[in-house]
UniProtKB/TrEMBL annotation:
It holds the Pfam family Fer4_7. One of its GO terms (molecular function) is 4 iron, 4 sulfur cluster binding. Residues 1-29, 31-64 form the 4Fe-4S ferredoxin-type domain. GO terms for cellular component: cytoplasm. Keywords: 4Fe-4S, Electron transport, Iron, Iron-sulfur, Metal-binding, Repeat, Transport. This is 4Fe-4S dicluster protein. It comes from Rivihabitans pingtungensis.
């Protein structure tokens, strides 16, 4: 399941540089996460780095983009160019 950024975002700029897949970008009003690039840091870290640094805890799972751990790993392999 990819992550999402809620309206509680304060645009503090700390999440964007932490994303190893470059899935986070500035939207019209708040930061947003591209679900096609978000792997919850699977393949990079044990925990999503954006959630770790967010001071307002506004990055929950996105219920509209459910994925298993295996699907997230496959997405990571494709994004990183390591897919067979």
């Amino acid at each position: 399941m990819s992550l999402m950024i809620t309206d509680e975002c304060i645009n503090c700029d700390v999440c964007e540089p932490e994303c190893p897949n470059h899935a986070i970008s500035q939207g019209e009003e708040i930061y947003q996460i591209d679900p096609d690039l978000c792997t919850q840091c699977v393949g990079h870290y044990d925990e999503p780095q954006c959630q770790q640094v967010c001071p307002v805890d506004c990055i929950p799972l996105d219920p509209n983009h459910e994925e298993t751990e295996d699907q997230l790993m496959k997405k990571y392999l494709i994004i990183s160019g390591k897919a067979a």
